[in-house]
Design a protein that fits this description.
- It catalyses: N-(5-phospho-beta-D-ribosyl)anthranilate = 1-(2-carboxyphenylamino)-1-deoxy-D-ribulose 5-phosphate.
- This is N-(5'-phosphoribosyl)anthranilate isomerase.
- The chain is an alpha/beta fold.
- Helix content is about 30%, strand content about 20%.
- The chain has 7 helices and 10 strands.
- Strands 1-2-3-4-5-6-7-8 form an 8-stranded parallel beta barrel, surrounded by 7 helices. A two-stranded antiparallel sheet has the order 9-10.
- Helix 6 links the parallel strand 7 and strand 8.
- The relative contact order is 0.18.
- Bound molecules: ligand LARABZUK.
- The ligand O=C(O)c1ccccc1NCC(=O)[C@H](O)[C@H](O)COP(=O)(O)O binds next to strand 2 and strand 8.
Length: about 240
């Protein structure tokens, strides 16, 4: 697989996930989020119905993408949700096979969650995983946790391969304090990087904290600026 690294001028995109309230969608949009995630998994404390997700998605301005997150849903359930939320990107976060993801998604863009074991002794072949899911728009890297996701747990980013020819979304336990390091460590290993957060910007499960959202976005912007400056310095030494 060809080597891949994102250019220094690239902007890290941001997804705020697990939104259940209009005021939190507004806070994410005003802070500069590129995407907002709606959890259609009934066992999640951040669960919203597809109808509720559609209601929330209708408050979005242009160029902010709604993401519909499902866990082991049927293709019919996924497509019914897509009919209610036009323009949504899909996120498969359960045990779905590549074929099940592709069949459910049809022509719509979809992300596949790669759930990375927290134990360093457990290998995870991300390059192979990405090649198995080549129809995916991006691979979302999350920690392998009980309940599938949204646990506020971070996996060891150093366990990722030095290069993967894929668009990655770094997720799992990110906070305003940690996201900068995540970008500096992971962005050089992939084609493009986005970051995804839920617990790290919450007051309670499903209730976001606008101040934390703004802090998270500011930390992403600072990391991008640092990457650009350091690369400029390398490319044009005095
Ligand atoms: O957010 C949930 O409750 C959830 C439940 C079941 C499967 C996936 C879930 N969230 C998926 C996401 O994309 C989260 O943003 C991701 O797991 C990171 O969550 P956090 O570690 O809390 O930032």
């Amino acid at each position: 697989m060809s080597a891949a690294t994102s250019p220094p001028s690239q902007r890290t995109r941001i997804k705020i996930c697990g939104l259940t309230r209009e005021e939190d969608v507004a806070a994410a949009v005003e802070a500069g989020a590129d995407a907002v995630g709606f959890v259609l998994y009934a066992k999640s404390p951040r669960f919203v119905t597809a109808e509720r997700a559609a209601q929330l998605a209708r408050t979005l301005p242009p160029f902010v993408t709604p993401v519909l997150l499902s866990v082991n849903a049927t293709a019919e359930e996924v497509r019914a949700a897509c009919d209610l939320v036009p323009g949504a990107t899909l996120q498969f976060h359960g045990d779905e096979t590549p074929r099940q993801c592709a069949q459910a998604a049809g022509a719509r863009p979809w992300m596949r969650a790669a759930r990375i074991p927290l134990e360093a002794s457990v290998p995870f072949d991300l390059v192979n995983f990405a090649s198995l899911h080549e129809g995916a728009t991006a691979i979302l890297l999350d920690a392998h946790v009980e309940g599938y996701g949204g646990a506020g747990k971070a996996f060891d980013w150093s366990r990722l391969p030095p290069s993967v020819n894929a668009h990655l979304v770094l997720s799992g336990g990110l906070t305003p304090a940690s996201v900068g390091d995540g970008i500096l460590q992971v962005r050089p290993r992939c084609r493009t990087l986005a970051v995804d957060v839920s617990s790290g910007v919450e007051r309670a499960k499903g209730v976001k904290d606008p101040a934390k959202i703004h802090q998270f976005v500011a930390a992403v912007r600072a990391a991008d600026a640092l990457l650009a400056r350091s690369t400029d310095a390398l490319l044009s030494p005095t």
